[in-house]
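Exercise: predict the structure of this protein bound to S-adenosylmethionine.
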Amino acid sequence: MSWTYERAPVLSDSQFAMWSQLLELRVGISLGQHQRQFLQSQVSMRMRELGEESFSDYFHKVTDAPNAQLEWAILIDRLVVKETTFFRHKPSLNFVGQHLQERLARGAAKSSYDIWSLACASGEEPYSLAMVANECYRQASQGPNFSITATDVSRVALALAKSACYPERKLEFVPQSYRKKYFVENSAGQFQFQHPVTERMCFSCGNILNLDDMPMFEFDVIFCQNLLVYFQQELRKKLLDSLVEKLKPGAILVIGLGEVTTWVNDAVERVQRADVQAYIKSADNN
Ligand SMILES: C[S@@+](CC[C@H](N)C(=O)[O-])C[C@H]1O[C@@H](n2cnc3c(N)ncnc32)[C@H](O)[C@@H]1O
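Solution:
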């Protein structure tokens, strides 16, 4: 069979079930029937690049061929939604800023303030957090003492995040004063995030389903937005329970508004604000 648009292969019901189960098992993402076309087009586009004609053969290439892990890494990047922006949800970022300011005001700044941007995509979220944190230290007239760990399952997204280079349209929500301070326009008209705070940031590949392989230390902030929404409710709650274990006493877990509705965990209390969905760990815990 040769590849033409007219004859592009169609996923059967059982093949759709097989591919979506694989996706759910490996990264937690649960696809509805309405995403069937999306799955089909992304998988078949990759198959076309490889000259592969059968979904089943390609499935083996992704699951049990010698280079299966490499092929999976390429495919998964095509299947996840990586949409993001700088300062995507300002109230959540402001809330992190307030949490840090309160801590600085209490004089509790001796130990590092550690932030985890859990599904960092192409980096706009961790760089936004870095700007917010840095400004808090500056306003408190204290030298920065924070770290940002940024993880994502997509290696392609992480490579973009590490390169820290963005077209101007991506900077739409970055305040003008921050643009001048944190970005430098390069000769290609791209904006490079360039500031000493990058020394406080590290990027690594991580799958939220394998939390035991993820950062081993505890955080003051876990920022996990626009990820849980792709998972089934029960998985969301289970993952949140595990994330609570990675919070320091008094630390905050910030998720996207409405990303979980009925989750309760005795170690954390929901912050009483309508514009953010955040949980604070009791300072007595641990
Ligand atoms: C829509 S983006 C959200 C980016 C950013 N957090 C934001 O709110 O703008 C979702 C990100 O989650 C990542 N992702 C999907 N499944 C994941 C998993 N199992 N573990 C870690 N990251 C995952 C994707 O690669 C993608 O970059």
